[in-house]
Amino acid sequence: MIFHKEYLDLVLVPCGLLIMFAYHLFLLYRCLKLPHTTVIGFENNDKKDWVEKIMQAENKDVKTALDVLSANVSAATFLASVSLTLSSLIGAWIANNSNIFQSELIYGDTRQATMSIKFISLLICFLLAFACFVQSSRCFIHANYLISTPDTDIPTKYVELAVIRGGDFWSLGLRALYFATTLLLWFFGPIPMFATSVSMVFLLHYLDTNTNPLHQHRSSVKQPFKSVDQTMIRTPSDAEYLDR
């Protein structure tokens, strides 16, 4: 049986995707069962404490809170725009029927049907990233409304839920971009795609692992300055001076 280079796509590409999916399932298990061992759980703990301190303050520092959330909205909106732009470019590329990735230099399957699968897979990843970043912006904007509502007794858990969901959608959008990166290397052959998948898993495992203990935030209340009681200071009287 003669081994054709097209067979590499049938072996290496599913193996690379399987490695990526297996790692993210393992990460999901750690986030649900052992959140303190992941960076996502570490950040969520800080976000919960931040929301709690903002909502419990007598005079809520609304401006600072809105500035923080606005920065998250801007970042999510920017990445959503980038994802949508790349999706549009891929759609135009598909319509143009470009043959740039069908060169003989690429060791792998370069047939038209396989190229269509590559383009569609990459397009799905970018569209998924776009949807996640849009949902992230929606959650952060909702948290903006909750925090800035004057004279209200909104439960802190509502704000926490909006902020945590915004962060979760942000993470999902980034994961979709990570998958898109590996699929992008598939255009240059199944070997670069598989190597990128393995390297990506090692890199993500390093970035997603948290070794620091969760910090228990406490209010830093300054101790009042204790003035010296003047009545306790004994000053010599005039009679004592005369006796001397």
From TrEMBL:
Domain of life where this protein originates: Eukaryota
Keywords: Membrane, Transmembrane, Transmembrane helix
Keyword Membrane assigned: yes
Xref: InterPro entries: DUF599
Pfam families for this protein: DUF599
Transmembrane segments: 7-29, 73-95, 116-136, 176-204
UniProt entry tagged with the keyword Zinc: no
Protein name: DUF599 domain-containing protein
Organism (species): Cinchona calisaya
